[in-house]
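Hi W.,

Here's what went into the run:
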Amino acid sequence: MDRAIFDFLNLPASEAAPRLLGCLVEREVDGRKLVGRIVETEAYDQTDAASHSYRGRTPRTDIMFGPAGHLYVYYTYGMHYCCNIVTGNEGVGSAVLIRAIEPVEGEEYMAELRGKTGIEMTNGPAKFCQAFAIGRRLNGHDLQQPPLKLVVKSSLKDDQIGISGRIGISTAKDTPWRFFIIENPYVSHVKMAWWKKNK
DNA sequence: AGCGGGATTTTCT
DNA sequence: GAAAATCCCGCTT
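Here's what came out:
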């Protein structure tokens, strides 16, 4: 089993996050295959006041402190799941939130799971989890194993990557740890005016 | 296109 | 007991 391709996940979350852009997520559910390309990520590490791991290892954040390349799933607002890829060495609480993906394969079944079509299927962290049927049961899952695998692709060029503050938080919201593929329609929180102007 | 509010439960104070 | 790494709907412009 070649683990070398996952080595960059041992980097700090803020360095691993932009390198996850363009990587593929392969999901098997109900005998069907879903594939998506990561187009938006956010970094959260232990020194970051906005991170779940900031106040130390707790039952919820335990997975964040485990080995890189596993999945950290959390439940929020009483109805949504969001998922992260654990980064950093064991004992360090850091992870990268997957905020949006672009459908590559199995778009029809994603639409069925999600109840929406087009960019509304996967242009947000909880939307992606719904479209890929990711829930509590996959917390701690090893992303080298089915039914959910990360397929690493070579890094994008710097001029294809946009950087901004993170979305939906009030603490440390100006820390520029959100990374996205420029002009990709599946990136979340893109104002319609911006997209029309730049399409 | 931009806003404000509600849903609903886990987690920590 | 309050806030939360969100989403959706409805109202206003």
